[in-house]
Amino acid sequence: MSEPLIGVSTYLEPAARWGVWELPAALLPAAYPRMIQRSGGLAVLLPPDAPARARAAVARLDGLVIAGGADVEPALYGAERDFRTGPPSEERDAWETALIRAALECGTPLLGVCRGMQLLNVTLGGTLTQHLDGHGGPLGAAGVLGSHPVVPVPGTLYASIVPEESAVPTYHHQCVQRLAPGLVASAHAADGTVEAVELPGSPWVLGVQWHPEMGDDLRLARALVAAASASGPAPARAPLEGLAPASAHAGLTG
User: Fold this and answer.
1) Is 28 in contact with 7 (CB distance < 8 Å)?
2) Active site (annotated) includes residue 114
3) 163-191: average pLDDT
4) Catalytic one among 106, 114, 135, 195?
5) What is the pLDDT of residues 131-146, one digit of tens each?
6) Active-site annotation holds for 148
7) Is there a catalytic annotation at residue 211?
8) Which pTM value belongs to this model?
9) Which of 96, 106, 198, 211 is catalytic?
10) Given 41, 63, 169, 221, which residue has the most CB atoms within 10 angstroms?
């Protein structure tokens, strides 16, 4: 059997100069494709594109990862911007929202990482808390991951993959506020923060608030790759029924 093709979303950012060039770049930390490769998949990067092309992209994939990154635009879940929320990334929001919807409609196995979990919740009609203390790295050490334990909810998909309490690499300042209809929490931090969500009844849809690509535990990625291997070609997959409307909140498109 050939290696399943796993798409990973990327983002467009100004990049540091390399050689004589200083140009915008489609960026993604190398830890993401390495995680997929180490777990038996073939990684392909998905830079932002026209949302209308998302379904065609997903139709060529066996699995999808929505990567972490910038804060989700608060208007997408009907909120005013908190002063601590980062600048908007409208192109990325629109593209990744469309990718999520296409994966759900096609029955493509989907893993959301940090921002990816938050955007999954927003896409399906949930909301976010725009600032949360205590889940970033060490105080005063920007860009350094922290670690804290998460506890799985018995009977969930996540608990079937990681059944025990485990320490995870974490760096975020936003989190799920109200779960979207249909989503369930499948892991929590000690302070009650939702650390994982999933969509019962779907072929394989899971979001985690931490950064599994930055750790050594490959169980999540291997489970995604296994689900992608088992799901079969895109035309043969059963679509997920009962999706929320494409615009659960003002400004949500794709």
Assistant:
1) no
2) yes
3) 93
4) 114
5) 876 666 655 456 667 8
6) no
7) yes
8) 0.88
9) 211
10) 63
